[in-house]
Design brief:
This protein is an all-alpha fold and 414 residues long. The protein folds into two domains: 23-198, no CATH class; 206-407, no CATH class. It has 18 helices and two strands. Strands 1-2 form a two-stranded antiparallel ribbon. The longest helix has 33 residues, at 375-407.
Length: 414
């Protein structure tokens, strides 16, 4: 195990950092961060609707959700191309590539033209179109990137403004022409093809192994100092589609079945109690530590931990720390398993409201998002499990810290 941890820290983590910084990956990660305000806006409307259900006289704000959360696919199409051009150092194409990607996306979703009207299923603009927006963004970015490398007319005597027009028009024509041929000449429903291509990922994501893998990967890479944001490109479409299907099921009076949503993983704060890896248990143990340093750190970080913000405790205590990485990984397996069993058995309600605000303290958030008081029982069961998991590893780490404090060697948390 020591050799494995050492390999992770010395070899695997540095190589992964290089991969994460690759522009083609960094651009997608940046996109997912930048669309979060639109997702949160939709979440605020859903929270508002909870109050509106008790006070029907309040105005309907659904239109706000429709034109923020409901346009995620379109927004992703623009932002992927925009961010890829930025990360690939083609700043002159950041806006024009993004706008071209919007045009490509609109053709991907297969609109129908009738008497001057463009008719399209509005649902294709939203969460179900996230993967489609990603493909549109990458398709356009590849064209603009390779065209930009040609540096055509860079040494000509043509006025700079005309050169810029030409160097914008040509990649636009290439991207739009290829898409138009496929969508209208070949009569291909590109949206449907992309959705079908990614459906195995969507289906696997809604299984227990899928849930465990999602949570474990976030915790695993986080323990190596690599942000969980890198997985948003995969998890966001799974989470968004899952919760939207649950909402639709409730509206139609059907059974809610999708357990794997952002609401289950983050908002309920059962799996991520204190943050990714369930670090609240560690923080509570630090409060009563025999080590003065650990006790002080625990007191400093307990408030953000209750709000499921664990960056301070992670980067000061857990990241690259062999003694505390393992319990973090264990929690990322046991937590999802318990929550899955509780929800799939019918003991705990599956979330059916889109509230993606992970900084609400549990068990208040747990009850709010599941609308089930039994969430309190699940919360304390999991808290006990997390404490038991953290305890032996923490005591070993505490012993090491006490030795360092006694010898005067202490100069950093890890």
């Amino acid at each position: 195990m020591k050799k494995f941890i050492s390999w992770l820290i010395d070899v695997f983590a540095p190589n992964m950092q290089k991969i994460v910084k690759n522009p083609w990956i960094a651009g997608l990660s940046s996109t997912m961060q930048k669309i979060i305000p639109f997702i949160l806006t939709g979440s605020m409307v859903f929270i508002y609707n909870i109050f509106r259900s008790y006070f029907p006289s309040l105005p309907d704000l659904g239109i706000i959700s429709n034109f923020t959360f409901g346009l995620l696919g379109l927004l992703v199409a623009f932002m992927v191309a925009n961010q890829l051009m930025e990360k690939l150092q083609h700043q002159r194409y950041t806006l024009i590539a993004g706008l071209t990607s919007i045009s490509v996306f609109l053709m991907f979703i297969k609109p129908v033209f009738d008497d001057g009207m463009m008719v399209v299923d509005f649902g294709r603009f939203g969460p179900s179109g996230i993967f489609v927006g990603m493909v549109a963004g990458y398709f356009v970015s590849i064209i603009f990137y390779h065209y930009g490398k040609l540096n055509l007319l860079s040494e000509s005597n043509i006025p700079i403004m005309v050169v810029e027009w030409i160097n914008n028009i040509l990649p636009i024509i290439i991207a739009i022409s290829i898409t138009a041929i496929l969508a209208f000449r070949v009569d291909m429903d590109i949206f449907d093809l992309i959705v079908q291509a990614f459906s195995p990922i969507q289906s696997f994501g809604q299984t227990l192994p899928g849930l465990i893998l999602i949570v474990f990967l976030m915790a695993f890479f986080y323990s190596l100092g690599i942000s969980a944001w890198i997985w948003n490109a995969v998890t966001t479409p799974i989470f968004m589609q899952g919760i939207m299907e649950n909402i639709e099921a409730v509206n139609q009076g059907l059974e809610v079945t999708n357990i794997v949503t952002s609401e289950t993983v983050f908002t309920a704060a059962l799996i991520t109690m204190g943050g990714v890896g369930a670090t609240l248990g560690l923080n509570l143990l630090m409060l009563i530590s025999k080590s003065k340093e650990l006790r002080t750190v625990g007191r400093l970080f307990i408030f953000p931990s209750f709000f499921n913000i664990n960056e301070p405790i992670m980067f000061s205590t857990v990241v690259m720390n062999p003694l505390l990485m393992l319990p973090l990984w264990i929690n990322a397996i046991t937590g999802p398993t318990v929550v899955w069993l509780a929800m799939s058995s019918g003991f705990l309600n599956i979330p059916s409201q889109m509230i993606q605000v992970g900084q609400i303290p549990a068990p208040f958030s747990s009850v709010m998002i599941t609308q089930d008081l039994k969430a309190v029982i699940v919360y304390f069961i999991l808290l006990g499990m997390y404490l038991i998991t953290w305890y032996p590893f923490f005591k070993a780490y505490e012993k090491k810290r006490l030795q360092q404090e006694g010898s005067g060697e202490l100069n950093k948390i890890n």
